[in-house]
Fold:
Amino acid sequence: MLASAGDSLPAVTTVATTERNLLIDLLKLFAVQVIILHHLVSYGKIAADADLLLPTPSSVIFEYGRYLVHGFLVIGGYLAARSLRWRAGPKDPIGLIVRRYFRLVPPYLGALTLAMLSAWFVRHWITEDYVGGPVTLGQLAAHVALLQDMLGLESISAGGWYVAIDFQLFAFLAIAHAVVRGEARLAIVMTACMFATLLYFNNDPRYESFFVYFVSSYGLGVLAGVSRHARLQRTRRLATALIILVGAAIVILAAQGANGRSVVALATAILLLGAPAASALEQLPPWLHTLIRWGGNRSYAAFLLHYSWILLANLIYSNIQGVNGWSLGAALIGVYAITWWSADWFYRHFELRVNQWFKAMPMLARGTASARKAGN
Structure:
């Protein structure tokens, strides 16, 4: 359940920026591959046969694959920190929030439409819980408002919760910065909120449907973004020190058997901070650079669409008698192939065009102008 859409403005083209962007694309590409595999071993006859034929790998991916969502949250926080380009603070946080909504939601609604059609079709032959029931008008309205989990409603598609959480976290960040006015102050406030999450909210499952449960992961990304992009060296040093402080707390908690998900977030933040990974990527051949960027750009679309293809694949696979390794392999490869084919089409013909249309809207244009003005 994951994936994040990057919402950064075009960055100044430098070698370092190019390397970091390639690293982000690689992290997104890797994470979404694991999430797709996690959902494949979670739903339907494909999951049941995977558990029979490959019990250990299937169990590990089922248990820990979902942790990769915290890597996406770190990347989301990092890109948000980089795109806001803080100095005196954005004067129009509402405009930025509205722009973020229209960046995330139109592709999300397009994918929900495919999920509803797939579930409606599959429901004629499969009645298992993972297919879900008929979608109600109230359920659909809650998804449009990104409130489905907060209201306790059934999700239409696996991973839809992440889009809601990503939006809530961005809104929290934009409003927090508009209030505190300054990178250093925001880094301190964010760190305090991260400790509240680690020590309290993460220990209460009632908060899993709210952004406060994920502030520690998103905040690591924000601190990493401030550490790399803050204008003042002392602010960059402060952000780095705060990452070390939060990281120490995460390691201590993980050693006590608590909050292992945050370890993935910490590892992602460390990768974003360090130059060695970026330098290693620079040595890769150009065709691999192209492949990584291609996959990174389409990772959000792949995340949104893959559940529909898992539903349809399970419908086909459920008609196969017995447990067959070749058939299982074909099903897994087929889901990946059609997911990335559809993600490419969706990205080029829907996601990019919708973003262009909404950028022309006055309120969204003001949000963009505010972010750019803060970076001047």
